[in-house]
Specification:
single chain, Arc Repressor Mutant, subunit A, Rossmann fold, 2 domains, three-stranded antiparallel β-sheet
Length: 257
């Protein structure tokens, strides 16, 4: 266990140096971290496989995935299987040709992966990760909303984003959130994104909240909206049945997957 921790710490330091400098050399890392050249090469190979960097002769360079998504990659690992099941159920509700608003978050990222099975979707998103994931599909039209960038959390926000959303109408607003609580409603940690989420809900026919069971009963920093009819909540079967029932009483269609 101690050895594994040492590897994790060393690789985290490599990514920190890479983020600061944009590139690293094997010899530089060997000296800085007190590890052999062979060990550093193995570290770089493993990090490249995970998409964090690109290997070069004698070192490595930063990738866009590394620059934008270090925090995102960490959060993606939390409750991953539950999020994937929720994402599959959400994607199953979408039909070919639909127009979607999608916000940022790890569960909406997994939903985007599942949506690749659809055709002719129009996707309007403030999530850099979702836009990158879906932007190359030939039958999709993907619009990344332009505005201020949160590099740490990989989304755009601000008045420019809000004004752009108002130009569109969507069949679904698919939202990843941090809290779903009877009485207080739907909340998020990011105050700057709560406004964006609210406008997406207003401009869509229906909203789908994709949230694993750890988000139920929780109230996060910034309120997005009240719970209401016309909203679908997709969560996992570990959800507290009493909480799920109370949420359903407020008009929300609750799906357990």
């Amino acid at each position: 266990m101690a050895g594994e921790l040492k590897i994790d710490v060393r690789r985290k330091k490599i990514l920190e140096i890479l983020r600061r400098d944009g590139q690293v050399r094997v010899s530089q890392l060997s000296d800085a971290l007190g590890a052999t050249v062979v060990t550093i090469r193995n570290d770089l190979d493993a990090l490249e496989q995970d998409g964090y960097l690109e290997r070069t002769q004698g070192g490595a360079i930063q990738t866009m995935k590394n620059y934008y998504n270090l925090e995102f990659q960490r959060r993606k690992q939390e409750h991953m299987e539950k999020k994937k099941a929720i994402a599959a159920a959400c994607a199953a509700m979408v039909r070919d040709g639909d127009t979607l608003f999608i916000n940022s978050g790890t569960t909406t990222y997994f939903t985007a992966v599942e949506l690749k099975q659809r055709k002719n979707l129009n996707v309007v998103t403030n999530s850099i990760s979702v836009a990158v994931e879906l932007g190359g599909l030939p039958t999709f039209r993907v619009i990344l909303l332009g505005g201020d960038i949160s590099a740490q959390y990989s989304f755009t926000y601000g008045e420019d984003v809000k004004e752009q959303i108002a130009r569109y109408r969507a069949n679904w607003a698919i939202l990843s959130v941090d809290g779903v609580n009877p009485g207080t409603g739907v909340t998020t940690y990011h105050a700057e994104e709560s406004v964006i989420d609210r406008v997406m809900m207003e401009r869509a026919e229906k909203a789908i909240i994709v949230a694993d069971s750890t988000k139920l009963g929780r109230e996060s920093f910034s309120r997005i909206s009240a719970l209401s009819s016309g909203t679908v909540l997709i969560t996992d079967r570990d959800a507290d049945p009493t909480l799920a029932e109370r949420i359903a009483r407020e008009g929300v269609e609750v799906q357990l997957v």
